[in-house]
Amino acid sequence: MIGREQEIRELNRLFSSNRAELVAIYGRRRVGKTYLVDETFSGRITFRHAGLSPCDENPKGLLRTQLNHFYNSLELYGMEPTEKPKNWLDAFLLLEKYLQKIDTGTRQLVFLDELPWLDTPRSGFIRAFEGFWNNWGCHRKNLMVIVCGSANSWILDSLINSHGGLYNRVTYEMKLLPFNLHECEEFYKINQIQLSRYDIVQSYMILGGIPYYLGYFAVGLSLAQNIDNLFFTKNAKLQNEFDRLFDSIFINPDAVKNIVKLLYTKNAGYTRKEITEKLGISDGGRLSRNLNALIASDFIIKYVPFGLSKREEHYKVVDPFCLFYLRFVQNQNKFNAHFWQQNILSQAVVTWRGYAFENVCFNHIEQIKKALGISGVVSSNSAWSKRDDDKDGTQVDLIINRNDNVINMCEIKYYGGNFTVNKDYYKTLLHRHELLRKKISPKISLHSTLITTFGLTPNEYSGAFSTVITLDDLFD
Asked: The domain spanning residue 298 has which CATH number?
């Protein structure tokens, strides 16, 4: 298994503890939650069950279908046939009786996958799960229950941050993150996919380090050929993935997708007020729930652009897969099996790479800080833009605002070779430096930093940057 070393250590530690454990694992869909549990506890799972997706089922019959499926799982694990449960209280009673009957005093591990799917409307699932854990499970020192799901907001609201009967009952929470660049490289090597670091970064711009997507890459094909196979050929594997992502984890997927599609249209994102105005929706609890659910699932972030007040919080799409899909896939009117191979040098793709590389850097802040030698320094990260009255305006791609009275003003450039600072660009850098200096305290030092692919060409203007960070640093 690639990466996940810390997660595996923690799960094994919890398995060896001498107390009841209720562990909640959550993370973006396709990130590898089920695989992590299966690989870590291979041969040690006492009972497992996965909820059925509600997407293609008539809501009226979904509760009965879920209960029958749960009963079937119990039978598969050896429970003697009995009357099928009429509700979730009955279903968990069957589970309790089964676990008691096979109890030998050793650790019993129950794995309930896709738990949010079990909580169908008016099913009483949460109340029944509360009863199962509070009245029975938490008192059995040899019981470990792992619950898992891709609907992060459900896991957070119903379990981890519950104010009801499950308040403070989760003994350990684990958020599983996508692979970073180093882990993507390891994944490709083990699967004999030969890509340069330059191309691995581009694959991250498209797939975002999601192991499930990386697993579709075919040996012997170039990056462009693989991307065509995944998105642009007829019946491509990820052609409908955007809709599946939202339909499977959100109660109101269309409203959520509309928010994502709006935020995509502006790299800096929009304020809450702008979202309501542009979508023609009310600024109320439903919008709050949708935005919080998108944040919890790592599709968007909420941030305050540098120099603005908290009242001007922006929401911005950061999921690479969504950004790529909305830019190049959603508007394809006809199949072109070689679209990506034919367009990798087009201006549209070159421009996209620039913005996408900025997103890669925001997702690798820890590696950037390590390269700067400031891993232990507390900092906040943002972008900054300013509109001049008589000019086109200016912007800084990344600002690392440190609590040691230093700001790193980072320029981010994705180039096929070394980046060269010419006279005009040098003047632009000085102008940005001057504008930013007016916004900050005199006690703060400004350090100009270049984040690029291969390095900086030495010339009379290259001294504009005090530090240069390359792809190799991002792979650390």
From this structure: 1.10.10.10
Rounded to whole angstroms, the Cα distance separating 332 from 310 reads: 39
Average pLDDT over residues 236-241: 94
pLDDT of residue 7 exceeding 80: yes
Higher pLDDT, 150 or 230: 230
> Is residue 61 one of the residues assigned to a domain?
yes
| Residue entry with tokens 């890669």 | 360
Q: Which helix (H) or strand (E) holds 28?
A: none
pTM: 0.92
Tell me phi and psi for residue 197, to 5 degrees: -65, -30
Beta bridge partners of 407: 401, 446
Beta strand extents in 202-304 (DSSP E only): 270-271, 300-303
Compute CA distances 133 → 142, 173, 202, whole Å: 13, 16, 45
Looking at residues 387-394, what average pLDDT do you find? Answer: 57
Rounded CA separation 201/73 (Å): 42
Give the least confident one: 168-172, 258-262, 386-390: 386-390
What whole-number distance in Å separates Cα of residue 384 and Cα of residue 314? 12
How would you label 167-181 residue by residue, b for 16+ Cβ within 10 Å and e otherwise? eebbbbebbbbbbbb
Domain boundary among 175, 200, 220: 175
User: Tokens representing 340?
Assistant: 């990506």
Together in a domain, 425 and 450: yes
* Mean pLDDT in residue range 240-258: 92
Query: Are residues 64 and 150 located together in one domain of the fold?
Result: yes
Inter-residue contact 419 to 458 (CB < 8 Å): no
Residue 107 placed within a domain: yes
Same-domain check for residues 155 and 20: yes
Residues 229 and 378 in one domain: no
φ, ψ (nearest 5 deg) of residue 110: -110, 125
What's the token pair of residue 71? 């009963």
Number of domains present in the structure of the chain: 4
CA distance linking residue 267 with residue 153, whole number of Å: 25
Q: Assess if residue 118 is contained within a domain.
A: yes
Please tell me whether residues 62 and 124 are part of one structural domain: yes
**Residue 416 lies in domain:** 365-474
CA pair distance 342, 348, nearest whole angstrom: 12
